[in-house]
Amino acid sequence: MQKIRDHYFEKAKQEKYFARSIYKLEEIDKKYRLFKKGVKVLDIGCSPGSWSQYMLKKVGTGSIVGIDISNSVRIHDNRFTFIQGNIFDFDPEFLKKQFGSFDIITSDAAPKTTGNKFSDAVQSLDIVSRVFSIAEIILPPGGTAIAKVFQGEDLKPFIEEIKNNYKRVSLFKPKSSRKESREIFIIAHNRRKAQ
Ligand SMILES: C[S@@+](CC[C@H](N)C(=O)[O-])C[C@H]1O[C@@H](n2cnc3c(N)ncnc32)[C@H](O)[C@@H]1O
After folding, report:
1. Could you tell me if the CB of 43 is within 6 A of ligand 1?
2. pLDDT of residue 3
């Protein structure tokens, strides 16, 4: 992950968060009030762990399962379980058998950027499509999915598609997200009952 040594980087260091990404999730949470006590979250692309750190502070007796290719997570909390793996390689049904369903799925997963904004956006959308297909299996009606995506020309039709499955879909660009970054967050609220 590219390290940007800005105000948010320094703040994260001071507040003992593993990454500056925390402030994007905090802004999302301040706006949408998502992480209530007792909720169970699947955190995709969780390494090094700042989102999970933040959510653990919020969910009380709830729990978090984090997944990442990289095993650089250093969270020691009995409400947190880490699975090392690539989301394209595991069967979400396995996840459901092992942990049951989740209230919220978060994804900050991103491809390694190449500098080519077209191919980066395509790869990012592949990840987000996979996140939403995992959500189809592990997220019950009423559940919420939050996912980072790089803006590209195929994003709009994708958003239209997921509107069929969620009652409200918002796009949010946090202030702590660098202006030059093409990332934006999809917040899909209130999953509809399967047809
Ligand atoms: C920006 S970082 C996440 C930062 C994290 N939210 C935090 O607050 O510490 C993106 C992560 O996505 C992971 N990732 C990317 N593609 C993935 C995939 N296909 N499966 C699992 N993890 C993936 C990367 O390994 C990387 O750790």
Report:
1. no
2. 56
Q: Which helix (H) or strand (E) holds 172?
A: strand 166-172
Q: Which residues contact 130 (CB under 8 A, 6 or more apart)?
A: 87, 88
Q: Which CATH architecture has domain 7-191?
A: 3-Layer(aba) Sandwich (3.40)
pLDDT over 90 (residue 90): no
pLDDT interval class at 1 (50, 70, 90)? very low
Shortest-distance atom of ligand 1 to CA 21: 8
Place of tokens 């991103």: 110
| Marked catalytic residue, from 57, 96, 148, 156 | 148
Q: What is the DSSP string of 35-86?
A: --TT-EEEEET-TT-HHHHHHHHHSTT-EEEEEESS-------TTEEEEES-
**Token pair of 125 as six digits:** 């959308």
User: Can you say whether the dihedral through the CA atoms of 160, 161, 167, 173 is positive or negative?
Assistant: negative
Distance 138 CA to ligand 1 centre (A): 19
Report how far residue 82's alpha carbon sits from residue 66's, in angstroms, rounded to the nearest whole number: 5
Going by pLDDT thresholds of 50, 70 and 90, the confidence category of residue 8 is confident
**Boundaries of every domain in the chain:** 7-191
Determine contact, residues 164/152, Cβ cutoff 8 Å: no
Closest residue to atom 23 of ligand 1, CA basis: 45
The label of the residue with tokens 């994804």 reads 107
